[in-house]
Amino acid sequence: MAKTSPGEFMRQVQAEMRKVVWPTREETVRTAIFVAILMVVLSLFFLGIDTVFGAIMRWLLTLA
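That's the Protein translocase subunit SecE sequence above. Prediction below.
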């Protein structure tokens, strides 16, 4: 495989960067809000699961 010169490499990078479709501000904000809401929902879910398993473990340890 032939080596690419630094100049050719930079031209290839610029050509690829022109193909990138950047999200609009509205899409970015909407996605960020969705991620934040999902993060809160999942944290509450795992808090509930952890609490239930903790209670089960405490109950099992009282039997021993």
